[in-house]
Amino acid sequence: MATTVTAEQVETVVADALAELGPDRELIKRDATFEELDVDSLDLAELSQVVEEKFGVRLKGDDIASIKTVGQAVDLIVSKAG
Amino acid sequence: MATRETCALVTGGSRGIGAAIARALAADGWPVAVNFRSGEAAAPAVVDEIVAAGGTAVPVAGDVSAPGAAEQLLAEAERQLAPIGALVNNAGVNADGLALQLEDDDWNRVIETNLSAAFRLTRQAVRGMIRRRHGRVVNIASVVGTTLTNPGQANYAASKAGLVAMTKAIAVEVARRGVTVNAVAPGFIATEMTAELTTGTLEAVPARRAGRPEEVAASVRFLASDEAAYITGATLVVDGGLSA
Ligand SMILES: NC(=O)c1ccc[n+]([C@@H]2O[C@H](COP(=O)([O-])OP(=O)(O)OC[C@H]3O[C@@H](n4cnc5c(N)ncnc54)[C@H](OP(=O)(O)O)[C@@H]3O)[C@@H](O)[C@H]2O)c1
């Protein structure tokens, strides 16, 4: 990608997308686990579609399996977009 | 006729069962994208017939087994009609022969068209469906490979058994998003595919006749409807009692 993606941008997109999937916005923090948020693998597949549309980053099944918290997801997306 | 905000894509809709499915869905209010591979004359005729009956339909050309076809066909249907609300994987081929004599090409072509293309189309269509929290996928399988088997159809039977397994696997993944994935397994239906079957074959059918494409289409229409919301991962057998 030509433009660099900031962590703040990714955090906003991820938080917005997760909020659409159910969890309360206040609970969506960097250290919150997807398990606590009741966000499952299908939710993460849906999140990865949003991420792909916004940042052109493709998360694979392995990537999704390896991330457990909101912060890990954000960091992974930022590193892939870099 | 109810107006809908999404459309249906029927692969291989230029003749046979696919054409009947396109007509039935259109009669139920679905705008229908009628895919065809080589039926340049047949597909527009199906479309014209639907439009004359007061429905909405467009032809969408393309070989489902070609690279990139899934994205291309779905995008074309969406561009001309509406987001995909129902996908009917009907395009199918056979290349019969005893396993000992089947060439790699006969095996690959049947698996590619009947199974792999259906997977790629489903994968792509379900992306939008899960986000809209609504969707219908209906895969046209067969009694062959699921409830019974014939010599000379190892490739076809494997493709249809695979299609039924894929139907169940994807159904359980997307069920909580209001998306259903089902299969319809026809028996002997009178189309070009079965034109060479002899009347002797029909003696094995308890109903003592071949099915009509419309009788398969009626099940697809039901599975695509709102009434069928709680049916998913199922295979509806339409075979005049053949596998009973
Ligand atoms: N007839 C039966 O007794 C029976 C029984 C069980 C299951 N089925 C299944 O029902 C489905 C329809 O069968 P049918 O009897 O209606 O067959 P058919 O009369 O031979 O028609 C097949 C349709 O599929 C299309 N098609 C084939 N390959 C394609 C490709 N690569 N890309 C796009 N379209 C393609 C054909 O389009 P073109 O004409 O443009 O090539 C045609 O519209 C198949 O999946 C078949 O396996 C049929």
How would you characterize this protein structure?
The complex is a heterodimer of chains A (82) and B (244). In chain A, 62% of the residues lie in helices and 0% in strands. Chain A is mainly α. Chain A has one domain (7-81): Non-ribosomal Peptide Synthetase Peptidyl Carrier Protein, Chain A, CATH 1.10.1200. Chain B is α/β, with parallel strands linked by helices. Chain B has helices spanning 16-27, 42-52, 69-80, 104-132, 154-174, 199-202, 213-224; strands spanning 7-10, 32-36, 57-61, 84-89, 135-140, 179-186, 235-238. In chain B, strands 3-2-1-4-5-6-7 form a 7-stranded parallel beta sheet, sandwiched between helices. In chain B, helix 1 (16-27) runs parallel beside helix 2 (42-52) and helix 1 (16-27) crosses helix 7 (213-224). The N and C termini of chain B lie far apart (36 Å). The interface between A and B is small, with 4 and 7 residues. NADP nicotinamide-adenine-dinucleotide phosphate is lined by residues 11-12, 14-18, 35-39, 63-65, 90-93, 113, 140, 142, 186, 188-189, 191-194 of chain B.
* Domains of chain A (count): 1
Please count the beta strands of chain B (DSSP E, at least 2 residues each): 7
Strand order of the largest sheet of chain B: 3-2-1-4-5-6-7
Rounded mean pLDDT score of chain B: 95
